[in-house]
Amino acid sequence: MRIAVTEAGMAFGYNPVTMTSFSPKLVRRHTDAVLNTNGGVFAYCATGRRRTMLWAFEFAHQRAPEDLIQHRRRVRAWTSHPCKSVWNGFTTVGGIIN
After folding, report:
1. Alpha-carbon distance 87 to 11, whole Å?
2. Reported pTM
3. In this predicted model, what pLDDT tens digit does every residue of 3-32 receive, in sequence order?
4. How many CB atoms lie within 10 A of CB 54?
5. Which of 7, 15, 34, 83 minimizes the number of CB atoms within 10 Å of its CB?
6. Nearest-10 Cα torsion for 54, 8, 10, 47
7. Quick one: pLDDT band at residue 33, thresholds 50, 70, 90?
């Protein structure tokens, strides 16, 4: 993937994510990469679940968990909500990017 991205003239960032590694630090690293780009961002994973969860965590301080879950269901990118308790934890500490 790194070769294809760099050959396309884009910067490649590596931010490995597992279902057990979610933390404010990991989400912040992803958010910083998104905010510090001059162009679009292509985030990928095998199923789309982890990149979708990163997106949701970025907005955890702005939206209720139920709103994020409903949005992802509408676009058919996520059909379950395994991280609702984590969202609640993130929102109680004031969110990720304030």
Report:
1. 29
2. 0.56
3. 888 888 887 888 888 877 777 888 888 888
4. 20
5. 7
6. 10
7. confident
